[in-house]
């Protein structure tokens, strides 16, 4: 059981109004035949599975995509009745469990179908979305002939029904579209294997739906855009409508002290004070998803950028303050304080990663607090 730190000032603030705005904005861009499925895997990229499911559905999402079967079952247990697709490979032995819960799963190759056969039941047919590997190299069929053979077997099998077909692009967030176009061509070639077009044909993650909407098919798997994050990072700086970031991370100083020239801070004593300095301690560390390599970055204290000094510890880190501040003074790690802003992208840039990893890495120990609630 993950223990949640409700008695500590460190919190992730989740702006439900922003989530609703982002989903609504994309739904309005789609044509009448195209449905938005909200990608809410990994605890909705750290924003909270059930909360985002509720807000996204109210804002126009028609279904959900998750990564693993357990996430789908959690949605069903919470009473969500919308279509759900698991995007990752589900072990064939769970085919019956998926089918009885009306959860669709990917059909990725001939071996998967063979292994699933003993678990298929004509009374509760399993819905599958056929995965096409057009260049991601991750899951799905690569050869038209194999695909034709498997589709023919599926047609003869009462316990399984093709409900969709999909692929995933590797470079939809890249200004260079050459590899993207190659994948589109490959997708069209593989689609020749289908005698009947499945109910759902889908290829679009957020980047594809934002910047290559002509490819969309009749469903989009809209993920990171829900959370107000630009899928390209900074590579493509305009989005068709303004995305509103949904997550902020805040904490408070738990101690403030003065140190003197030569005094050291944190493990390894890597930081030494140049003179008299005020140092504040912030109760968040790498166990909470604030990477150890953030030493040298900054947070906002009272709206001012204050550098992180010394190594980030598992549960705490220290900042240099311009003056003494009382314990309890607000610290913003991600978000806005007055005129100053730190984005998840800023954090990711400094940490040498992408904002996806920072958002879904914010630890289970950090409580998610609703702001701007949508009922
Ligand atoms: C198959 C698939 N579709 C859609 C998405 C959503 O991507 P994004 O969050 O970039 O919209 C993902 C996320 O990794 C995915 O793996």
Automatic annotation (TrEMBL):
The active site is at 41 (proton acceptor), 267 (proton acceptor). It is an enzyme of class 5 (isomerase). The keyword Isomerase applies. GO terms for biological process: D-alanine biosynthetic process; peptidoglycan biosynthetic process. Keywords: Isomerase, Pyridoxal phosphate. GO terms for molecular function: alanine racemase activity; pyridoxal phosphate binding. Its EC number is 5.1.1.1. Pathway: Amino-acid biosynthesis; D-alanine biosynthesis; D-alanine from L-alanine: step 1/1. Its cofactor is pyridoxal 5'-phosphate. NCBIfam families: alr. Catalyzes the interconversion of L-alanine and D-alanine. May also act on other amino acids. HAMAP family: Ala_racemase. This is Alanine racemase.
